[in-house]
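WARN no homologs supplied; continuing
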Amino acid sequence: MALVVLIGAAVGSYRGAQQVERTNNAQGVQAPLEYLPSVQSARLLSLGHEPALADLFWIRAVLYFHNEVMRYHQFTWLQQYTDLVSALDPDFIDIYRWGGTVMVFSRQDEISYEDVARANAILEEGAKRFTEDYQLPMSAAANCTYYVKNPSQEESDALEACRRRFLAMAAQRPGAPQYVVMLHVQSTASKASESPEVRQQLCEFLRNTYMGNNDPDVQAQIERRMKSGFCGEGLSADQLQRMREQFSSIHKKTFPFISPDLAVHVVDFGRFARPMDE
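OK structure emitted
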């Protein structure tokens, strides 16, 4: 019965919007109206089936976006759709991915810094909820990197800080591919030369990644940086190998049930942060 009510409410809302659109078109009005309930009203309407109602509004959101792309190009209600679906079903990861993409392109003219900020607010909300997903922060980093043309100096600085922050977030998450890890290292290395604090953070990240990543290409690139003295006194190949063996031993003894890229965040590095002298 509850599902019938939900479907009936959604269909009624959609048909009402269609009727208003037909009236507007007859009167020469270009922007159609959308009838969306508040989050509180939608929760009452759901009768306890909030994810099911979120699915219905998600379908409407996709249809709305398509309609705007094909006809009106105004996207007036896009933010409201995204907020409504994520509030009704915050565990629906695709609403964050979708919202963080379409919000960037929700205008006909040039993408602005404000467009990117709105899109990234959605992606960051999702990234906070899905803490093991690297794609959400990586999408935010891409938004900060590619889309704003001719930003002001203030916007350019903010976009660069945004790019570094989200790259760091993505690179430290389980399953982040090699290119994400190295993009973070490259984007932070130049800043590290200016700030001892940033250098220390980057060195800690390099160490954790070296311990927990089994990709030989990633390990080789990190070895080159650490041997060069980037993190203080250069480390020999034997010392780096010993650090990795010590980590592997502790990992297997204490946290064998979690993957190495997660274990680096819980293993006590104090006991072997500095390799013993030969």
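The mean pLDDT is 76.
OK
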